[in-house]
């Protein structure tokens, strides 16, 4: 056993060195950012989706939109193999995989009129790859939106004190958006006052917990919340980004950053002991092997394909200067890596003994946000004057806000994808923003209630395959970046190696899961898993084809460089 301060210090120092040095190298030598390049936020400005944005505000949007609840859930599950493998993958993945991926997706989109990476695939790789990419993207977004609605609704039901703080963030965000963008108020005071209000309403939430009726029109509290959340997401996805999405993500980002700082401060003050083993050689029966499952269990927090959707879907449309991509994209992934790191500490040091930890981890895939809240609140209460009950509410609100901002961005991204389909395949009705939004929400509700019945839990049925699908999407994004770099005659090894690694891990994980799903009689998941396997194979084939083609062209033009 050792002090939790050790992994905390090593992790923090490593990821910030990655930002200071590695991201600078990638920015200057690989992506070659140009401060004078006119971004789509200026050339296509419409003040709805395209708008130049202060890089700190945009970082807040990007960080909270990509984080979600996954960097909490994934590490909380993955430490069942021991804390060290999870730690190595989170830190190494953040520095060499996620930062390059997220940062690169913004750069690629900015250089191509703010188009999503999915739409770019047709130009960069092939039309077949574009079709594949767009299907994977829509499927993943539908899954994320349906499941995060379930996660938020369950949190509201389990913790009624989190309802008022979570919804108050919307009102605060609208006021901040109006103050900054319509009244020209400098950003400092709205940030300070807004953050104070958000923390103050946590106390109000504890005084006035909100619970929906036990039944309404045949629906229980959780499905009622799901319908309310999708109604909100429909409206939010159609509003100008400056009015709600951007200021909400920004102020939530500030609040969440303070929460992270409080957690790390508590670690240093309380000095808890990591009771979990570095390598767990006594895993419960039924636990899958560490390789390849670790690399798809921890997606967000180390590498996530969803990040590329946000980076090229909403973030790239708001980038004021191309050089801001490094701060927004790489530092955004650094923030998520730190969230995954503190989660690892909370779920391995937030217990009094190894026996207590083993009792919690008596089975695979049964831990998540609750374990994070329990362990984290204990560390905060031991290391600071903050009462444990308040700390638990604060951490629960953190998780809800992360999931909520991701859902906001996810529905808007689904709208973008449908509109891009309308443009690509010349279907005018799909190019309409309202039609595209209603189609996106209808697809999510069909999954939630069509597959899950009146409880609205349908998204959970296919959630076990989220990790493999998500990492496959990351492989596709890295493939697009690699081929772009080959075409430009630049070094591509820094995107190619992560692409090969994550695609192979996704393929192996899908193959491993296939037999278990089949023998378990989960035939819907068997079909989905087979589709994932086929898509992974197509990614590999398309990668070989694209690289062979572009390498030959580069050789003929004399622009080839060493990988």
Would you kindly provide a written description of the structure presented here, covering whatever features stand out?
- This protein has 563 residues and is an all-alpha fold.
- α1 runs parallel beside α5 and α7 (127-158) runs antiparallel to α17 (388-424).
- The chain has helices spanning 5-30, 40-43, 55-67, 70-78, 83-110, 117-124, 127-158, 163-181, 188-207, 221-238, 245-270, 290-297, 305-313, 324-349, 354-360, 369-383, 388-424, 428-431, 433-450, 458-462, 466-487, 493-519, 523-557, and strands at 2-3, 273-274.
- The chain has a two-stranded antiparallel sheet.
- It has 23 helices and two strands.
- Helices cover 74% and strands 1% of the residues.
Give the topology.
Layout: E1 2-3, H1 5-30, H2 40-43, H3 55-67, H4 70-78, H5 83-110, H6 117-124, H7 127-158, H8 163-181, H9 188-207, H10 221-238, H11 245-270, E2 273-274, H12 290-297, H13 305-313, H14 324-349, H15 354-360, H16 369-383, H17 388-424, H18 428-431, H19 433-450, H20 458-462, H21 466-487, H22 493-519, H23 523-557
Helix pairs in contact: 1-5, 1-14, 3-11, 3-13, 3-14, 3-17, 4-14, 5-13, 5-14, 5-21, 6-7, 6-21, 7-10, 7-17, 7-19, 7-21, 7-23, 8-9, 8-11, 8-17, 9-11, 9-17, 10-17, 10-19, 11-14, 11-16, 11-17, 12-22, 13-21, 14-16, 16-17, 17-19, 21-22, 21-23, 22-23
């Amino acid at each position: 056993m050792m002090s939790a301060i050790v992994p905390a210090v090593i992790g923090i120092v490593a990821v910030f060195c990655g930002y200071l040095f590695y991201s600078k190298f990638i920015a200057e030598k690989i992506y070659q950012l140009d401060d004078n390049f006119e971004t789509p936020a200026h050339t296509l400005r419409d003040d709805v989706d395209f708008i130049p944005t202060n890089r700190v505000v945009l970082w807040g949007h990007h960080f909270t939109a990509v984080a979600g609840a996954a960097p909490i859930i994934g590490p909380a599950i993955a430490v069942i193999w021991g804390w060290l493998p999870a730690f190595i993958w989170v830190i190494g993945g953040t520095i060499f995989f996620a930062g390059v991926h997220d940062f690169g997706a913004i750069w690629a989109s900015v250089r191509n009129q703010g188009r999503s990476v999915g739409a770019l695939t047709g130009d960069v790789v092939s039309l077949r790859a574009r079709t594949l990419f767009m299907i994977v993207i829509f499927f993943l977004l539908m899954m994320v939106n349906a499941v995060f609605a379930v996660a938020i609704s369950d949190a509201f039901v389990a913790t009624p004190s989190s309802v008022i703080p979570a919804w108050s963030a919307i009102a605060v965000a609208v006021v901040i958006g109006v103050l900054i963008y319509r009244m020209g108020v400098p950003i400092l005071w709205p940030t300070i006052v807004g953050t104070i209000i958000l923390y103050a309403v946590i106390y109000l939430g504890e005084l006035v917990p909100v619970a929906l009726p036990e039944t309404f029109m045949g629906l229980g509290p959780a499905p009622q919340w799901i319908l309310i959340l999708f109604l909100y997401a429909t409206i939010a996805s159609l509003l100008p980004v400056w009015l709600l999405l951007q200021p909400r993500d920004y102020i939530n980002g500030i609040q969440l950053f303070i929460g992270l700082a409080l957690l790390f401060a508590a670690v240093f003050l309380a000095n808890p002991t990591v009771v979990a083993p570095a390598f767990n050689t006594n895993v419960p029966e039924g636990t899958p092997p560490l390789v390849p499952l670790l690399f798809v269990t921890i997606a967000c927090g180390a590498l996530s394909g969803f990040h590329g959707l946000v980076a090229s879907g909403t973030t790239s449309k708001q980038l004021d200067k191309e050089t801001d991509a490094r701060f927004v994209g790489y530092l955004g992934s650094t923030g998520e890596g730190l969230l995954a790191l503190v989660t690892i500490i909370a779920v391995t040091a937030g217990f009094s003994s190894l026996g207590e930890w083993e009792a919690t981890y008596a089975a695979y895939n049964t831990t998540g946000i609750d374990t994070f809240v329990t362990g984290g609140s204990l560390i905060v209460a031991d290391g600071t004057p903050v009462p444990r009950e308040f700390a638990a509410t604060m951490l629960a609100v953190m998780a809800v806000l992360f999931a909520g901002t991701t859902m906001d961005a996810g529905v808007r991204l689904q709208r973008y994808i449908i509109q891009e389909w309308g443009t690509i395949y010349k279907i005018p009705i799909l190019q309409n923003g309202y039609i595209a939004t209603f189609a996106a929400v209808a697809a999510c509700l069909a999954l939630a209630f069509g597959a899950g019945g009146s409880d609205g839990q349908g998204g959970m049925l296919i959630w076990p395959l989220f990790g493999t699908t998500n990492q496959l999407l990351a492989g596709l994004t890295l493939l697009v970046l690699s081929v772009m770099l080959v075409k430009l005659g630049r070094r591509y090894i820094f995107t190619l190696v992560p692409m090969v690694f994550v695609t192979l891990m996704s393929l192996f994980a899908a193959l491993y899961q296939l037999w278990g799903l089949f023998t378990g009689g989960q035939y819907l998941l068997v079909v989905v898993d087979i589709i994932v396997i086929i898509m992974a194979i197509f990614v590999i084939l398309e990668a070989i084809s694209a690289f062979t083609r572009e390498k030959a062209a580069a050789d003929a033009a004399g622009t080839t460089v060493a990988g």
